[in-house]
Amino acid sequence: MINVMNLKTAAFLLATAFVLSNCTFKSSGKEDDSVSGQYEAELTDAPRVPISGNYKYAKKVIVKLEVLEQVMRLADGVEYNFWTFGGKVPGKFIRIREGDEVEFHLSNHPNNKLPHNIDLHSVTGPGGGAEASMTAPGHTSQFSFKAINPGLFVYHCATAPVGMHIANGMYGLILVEPKEGLPPVDKEFYIMQSEFYTKAKFGAAGLTSFDMEKAFNEAPDYVVFNGAVGNHMGDQALNVNVGETVRLYVGNAGPSLASSFHVIGEIFDKVHVEGGTFINENVATTLIPAGGAAIVEFKCETPGSLTLVDHSIFRAFNKGALAQIKVTGKEDESIYSHKQKDMVYQPEGSAVQSITKAPREVAMPEKSMTQRMESGKILYEANCAACHQKNGEGLPGAFPPLANSDYLMSLKDKGISIPLHGLTGIIKVNGKQYDGVMPQIQLTNDEVASIMTYVRNNWNNKGDLVTAAEVEKVRNGK
Amino acid sequence: MANNIFRKRAFICMLTLLAPVSVLFGAVKDMVKIPGGQYTPFFSDVPGKSTAIKPFYLDIKAVTNAEFLLFVKANPRWAKSKVSIIFADNSYLKHWKGDFPNEDNFSKIKDGPVTNISWYAATAYARWKGKRLPTLNEWEYVGNIAASNDTRPIEKIILEWYSKPTPAVLPPVGSTFKNKFNVYDMHGLIWEWVSDFNSIIMTGDSRSNSAINRDLFCASGALGAVDKENYAAFMRFAFRSSLQGKYTVSNLGFRCASDIRN
User: Fold this and answer.
1) How far apart are CA B147 and CA A144, in angstroms?
2) Contacts of residue A114 in chain B, CB cutoff 8 Å?
């Protein structure tokens, strides 16, 4: 019985083997795997991406990467002793083609303290190259691999303790372009997210270093794009013109957190999910695992600033995971209009709104000019400055100025009436028209007297003391 | 043929005759007696099993450039231009100007630890002094002793050293902490050669399952480690396993040990 089973199994295995070998034969018959010619790869620092080699046949590619340990900026006033592939964080971008044979040279600068190696996720073989590239300071290791699978891959140092080497900045991206190439786009950028676990709190000035305990707890102080807070913000934003197509090669080095990668104000037309061959379309937020990547593509159809974030949003606004793409060009209002109107929303109808319940009036003794100015400043900043601004300048087009204001100063009673009763409709202040709604502010006579004294005797306004009795009169006069 | 053998023997005889002289007069000077004790290796086939360390002498401080220059002068075959590439790579003593640097350009570094020396050079120096390199277990045993003039735990001292770049000129020996055995600079100044630096090899990968390699003394990754959170020790072992005997590194020096003879 057992013998028969074995025979059957053997026959099945033979048949399978035949089918398999047949398949292999077919696919390899179609493609030419031979390598012709060699060159040294151009490596680039983020956000730059090397241009596509765009060659028809696989080649031998020489990649030379140097490990440097050096102090650099992590945030304004904050420095960190980074361990880097090529002197920057993230490490150099490597671009090769499917089928290429890569001869990799990893050099460890003699002044470095530690041995390093490299694990490229694009390598098929033990340790992704790490096993072959352990390198003492002052030495160079060489190994070779064939880029069998196309895609966008993370590389990183895998020397013990691995987590610390990654946490200190040792990672980058390698793109293995598919044989058929990627469709042309106008702009390509290299973006890599990573976390830093620092002894000092976020933003604390000075040289800081790796904190093991925070790393174990996976609670970083910094989550950044391209190695430092604000590297692509403001003047250093990435620049794109309206109408251009953009491809972002996005990596997430971790070491611990997965990224909810999102660009505020854009929808990805295409996402190469996890950096692989599968393409998803019309995606707003794509998940990039630690040690993973994604290729996202979109067309910039309208001008303005696009903001790259990790949509695990506290990382963006409190830990540094922000970058900007500035799109310049002609407005197209059919795509995006900007604010067309600002109207007050009045769910209870169009009457003037009151902000709080009417306060209980408590008899207060009248105050001196100095006392009114002092308490008036505090009350103004608490109740009025949000709209009229601390300096009384208001906001053009929305909130009229109180500073140097002809409208406010024209009639004392009219001025006092505004916070008491609110104000709607078109008014003209210093020659400019405003059509907004000022709500009733529920304050006591004493408080209004102080505020009105403060605004009428400040910012070039020349008035006099406003008493609680005067306020009382205006309040009842309605 | 016979002649050759005779010559070799004569050479060895001369060496053995020379050696005891320095053992008698040199071994204890600038050294301290390390009491024997139990030590739990960071990596072990049987995690947590401790090893007995016999008492021995250890240099209080690492060997300086000035001291190493005396050795090179007495043994010119270890001079920069003469050394065999089998025993030291290209960057051997690269921070020295010439074979025998003079006082002028040497004064800045003379009291600093000698670095950019290979394991072969360190071993030859130790033999010349009638000493030897400490074993990995001896070094680690002393390296784990707490500081006597610094309240920070050892791991903290080490990690802070890792987090700063190597200065252009290394500070003089004896400038960091002293431990409770009265030994200086076990951490925070340089890495140090040990006699059996390659006896524990982390695979280059540092992560993979080491089941296959275990028989080859390969305690790769964290599997064999006693204290998986001891990042400082991980880096020390990773560093040693990245070395070969002829390698020279800008922050790798050595100190000597010797046996206690009754």
Assistant:
1) 46
2) 162, 235, 238-239
